[in-house]
Amino acid sequence: MSGNNVIGEAAIRAGCRFYAGYPITPQNELTEYMAEHMRTAEGGVFLQSESEIAAINMIAGASATGVRVMTSSSSPGISLKQEGISSMAACELPGIIVNIMRGGPGLGNIRPSQGDYFQATRGGGHGDYRTIVIAPDTCQELADLTMDAFDLADKYRTPVMILADGMMGQMMEPVIFKKPKPRQYPEKFMLRGAGTGKSKFIRGLLLDPIDSEAHNWKLARKYQVISENETLFEEHRVDDAELVIVAYGTAARIAKGAIKRLRSQGMNIGLFRPITLWPFPEAKLRTLSAKVKNFLVFEMSTGQMLEDVRLALQGYANIDFHGRPGGSVPTPSELANVVARIYNKKDL
Amino acid sequence: MLVKTIFSGFGGQGVLMMGISLANSAMNKGYHVTYLPAYGAEMRGGTANCTVAVSDEEIASPIASEPGCLVVMNSPSLLTFQNKVSEGGTIFINSSIIDMRPNRNDVKTICVPCTDMAQELGNTRVANIIMMGAFIRELNVVSPEIYLKSLESIMGSRKKALAEINRKAFAAGFDYIKD
Questions:
Q1: Whole-number pLDDT of residue B43
Q2: Does the pLDDT at position A347 exceed 80?
Q3: How far apart, in whole angstroms, are the C-alpha atoms of residue A305 and residue A280?
Q4: Across A195-323, where does the E strand assignment appear?
Q5: With an 8 Å Cβ cutoff, are B60 and A260 in contact?
Q6: Which CATH topology does B2-178 take?
Q7: Is the confidence at residue B178, as pLDDT, over 80?
Q8: Does 1.10.730.10 match the CATH number of domain A3-229?
Q9: CATH number, span A234-345
C-alpha cells in the first residue's frame, strides 16, 4: 500500500470516525482513501471541506463531541490550519493532523521536502503550546505510529502531527496492521448534550490573565510530562561508529542506503534517527556523544533539525551538515560521497 | 539479492503499472519490496517514472543511485537515465518508438518492439505488459504464474475482460526473449 493509504487505513482501524480534508498534492491519495472507506466504517463521516481552515475547525468541533478525528494536508495547507491547531491545543482537544510535506516556501512545488520542521516542532500557530510530532520512515511505521498517535492524542488531550513527505506518502511497501488498543477516553471530556446533568464547557478564550496564566502553566506541565516520557528514536549501527548521521523520515532511508555502501568500504558510520521530532530525543543523543564525537545532520532542508542537534550536543561533538531543500531528493551515493569526504578529512 | 529497476516513459504508457505489478508479484513471492513513483501533474503526456526495489533482506533506501535495470518506453527516458545504470546492468528498450541505442558498452541492451507487438495483438495499451513479459523472462525474479496472478488481482474485477489480452501480451514478450 502507498503511505497515504496506509495512514488512512490505520486511522480507520484505530477508530477514527471523522475526517475532513481539502485536496492538495502529494497527499491526495489519503483524502481519496478516506472518501471511499469512511462510508463503510460504522458511524464514519467523511467531509471534503471548502478549505483547509474549515477542515481543521470541523475536526476540532467533532473532537469536542468525543469522536476520534483526523485531517490531512501538505505544507501550504498546513500553514492555513495553524490557527485551528493552536485552538485545539488551547482547548485540549485530541486530534491527528497529517502533513505530507512538499517543497516550499510559498506554494513551492509538489516534490518531497522536509522544510516544515520548524513549523511542526515549534507549535506552528500562536501562543505557548506544543504539538507531538511523529516522523515515520517506512510504511510499516506509518501504520503502527498512526495508530499510536490516536492513543497519545487521547492520553494527553492534545493534537498530534504525523510529519511525512511526498515520498513517504506515495511510496508503496508491504504493511501488516497491528490490532489497535481499545480506546480509553473519559466521557467527562465529551460534549454530548447536558441533558439533566451539569453543562460542560470547552473554550480557548480566557480573558482574565490570571486564568489564562494558570492554563498556560497547566499546559506547560503537560508538555513537560510528554517530553520526559514519549520520545522515540532508532539507533542504527552506532555501536562501533566513528561518525553518526542524524536524519529523520525519508532522509533517514537515504542515509541507511548510504551507510550500507560506506560500511562495505570499511567506514564505520551509524545513524541516529529521531522518530518523535517533538519531543526531540535530546538526552539520548547527548548520551551517544559520550562515545561518538562526529555527527552529520542530513535533512531535505537548509538545516532546521540541525538547531535541535546543536542544542542537544551543546558543543560536546563536531557537527557537520548536508541539506537539499526545495523538493530535491538526493541519492544514497550523493550522501555517501559527502560522508566519505568528511570521514577522510577528519582521518577517522 | 537486491534488484533496483527504474521504469520510465510518457504518462499513459502504463509505466507506473509496470512497477506496481512487479512490486506486487515480488511481494507475493515473499520478497521485501519498495515502489516509488514520480510523475507530473498531467493525466496523460508528461513524464512518469518509478523505482522498484526487490530484495531478500530489508531495503535501506527506496531511491536508486545506480539501478541494475532500466526499462524505457520513450526516447527522453533513455537520455535521462542511461548513465545511472550500474556497470553490467541491463537496459530494456521499447524499440518500436526509440531509434537511439545506449551510448555505453558496459551494459546489456535488450530491444523489444513492444508497441508494434501490441498493435498486432489489437491493443497498443498492452505494450507495457509485453515489456514485462520480456523483463520477467530475462530477470527471473518471479515466475510467470505469480506475475500474472498478481497482475489480475491489481486490475480487479472491473477489468476482467483485459485479463485475457494481458495474458497473451505477457506470453508474447516472454517468448520474444526465448526465441
A1: 66
A2: yes
A3: 9
A4: 233-236, 243-246, 269-274, 276-278, 294-299, 318-323
A5: yes
A6: Pyruvate-ferredoxin Oxidoreductase; domain 3 (3.40.920)
A7: no
A8: no
A9: 3.40.50.920
pLDDT, tens digit (0-9, with 9 covering 90-100), for B108-166: 999 999 999 999 999 999 999 999 999 999 999 999 999 999 999 998 866 677 889 99
| B27 contacts on A by Cβ (under 8 Å) | 174
The C-alpha atoms of residue A228 and residue A250 are separated, in whole angstroms, by: 26
**Cβ A171 vs Cβ A139: under 8 Å:** yes
Dist CA B137 CA B178 (whole Å): 8
Question: What's the grid cell of residue A111?
Answer: 516534490
Contact A171 B62 (CB under 8 A): yes
Q: Which of A131, A347, A345, A339 is nearest to A246 (CA)?
A: A339
Give chain A positions within 8 Å (CB) of B65: 257, 331-334, 336
Q: Least CA distance to B54: which residue of chain A? A: A173
Q: What ipTM was predicted for this assembly?
A: 0.89
Which chain A residues are Cβ-neighbours of B61 within 8 angstroms?
Answer: 253-254, 256-258, 331-332
Q: Give the C-alpha separation, B99 to A195, whole Å.
A: 77
B23 touches chain A (CB under 8 A): yes
Chain B residues in contact with A171 by the CB 8 A cut-off are: 34-37, 62
